[in-house]
C-alpha cells in the first residue's frame, strides 16, 4: 500500500544514501592522507645527516629535508581539511537520517491507521453478514 508519505520517504532515502556515499568517500580520502602523512614522517625519521662529504651532498640533504617537511606541512593541512569535511558530512548524514526516520515513522503510522480502518470495515461486514444469516434462519 502506498501512503501519501511514500514518495517523500523515497526522496529522503535517496538524500540519505547520497550523503552516506559522500561520507564514505571523505573518510577514505582522510585515511589515505593519514597513510601518506605517516609515510612522510617515517621517511623524515630515516634521513640521516651526512657526517662527512662534500658541500653539495649537504646541500642536497638539506633540500631533500626541506621538500619532505613541505610535503608534511601540505599533508597536515589537507588532513585538517579532510577532518572538517568528514565532520560536516557526518552532521549532514545525521540530519538526513533523522528526517528519513521521521517520514518513515509517519508512513508507518499512516499504514497502521489504514489497517485499522480496513479491520473495522471487515468487522462491520462480518457483523452484517452474521445478522443477515441470523435473520434468514429465524
Q: Can you characterise this structure?
A:
The chain has 138 residues and is mainly α. The protein has helices at residues 6-46, 55-137. Helix 1 (6-46) runs antiparallel to helix 2 (55-137). The mean pLDDT is 92.
Q: Roughly what fraction of the amino acids lie in strands?
A: under 5%
Unreliable segments (pLDDT under 50, ≥5 consecutive)?
Answer: none
Major sheet? none
Percent helix, as a range, is over 70%
Number of helices: 2
Short description:
This protein is mainly α.
List keywords for this structure.
138 residues, mainly alpha, 2 helices
What is the topology?
Blueprint: H1 6-46, H2 55-137
Helix pairs in contact: 1-2
